[in-house]
Amino acid sequence: MIDDVDYKILQILQEKARIPNAEVARQVGMAPSAVLERIRKLEDRGIIEGYEVRLNPQPFNQGLMAFVHVTLLSSCRVNLAEDLSRVTGVQDIHQVAGEDGYLLKLRVADNAELGRVLAEEICSLDGVQQTKTSIVLNTIKETRKIDLNRLSS
Q1: Pairing status of strand 90-95 against strand 102-108
Q2: What are phi and psi of 38, to 5 degrees?
Q3: CATH number, domain at 18?
Q4: Global confidence as pTM
Q5: d(CA 24, CA 95)
Q6: Domain encompassing residue 23
Q7: Strand extents, DSSP E, 10-141
Q8: Which of 32, 64, 115, 136 is most buried (most C-beta within 10 Å)?
């Protein structure tokens, strides 16, 4: 069970994962050792899955983002998701309901690289019937944060 203190700790960590433990403790009104123990328990229970740095993709020549809907053949192999996870630039893979089997989020350098990835890496996989691609022109909001405000009341 997650109590109000855990929710507050999670909110703080979602805003700034590198915040010193002593500062988290100050904000929740607890001893640093007690906060550290709570964070460890949240990690052990899988509530906190990890910590990562968000990098600007531009300096790494990965400025083009695209979403690719992958339609599968009816006799598709079960390990296609594993193969898709090895495709250049794939950041996210979602198995979806409906006509498409998977929705991929890719980051690549430009249209030429996107075309190469689609033709040589995705469409060449056994089990892929077709793809439908949407190129992102501008990102308005992108986050991995979970809305904890509506859950803790």
Answers
A1: antiparallel
A2: -65, -45
A3: 1.10.10.10
A4: 0.84
A5: 37
A6: 4-44
A7: 64-72, 90-95, 102-108, 128-135
A8: 64
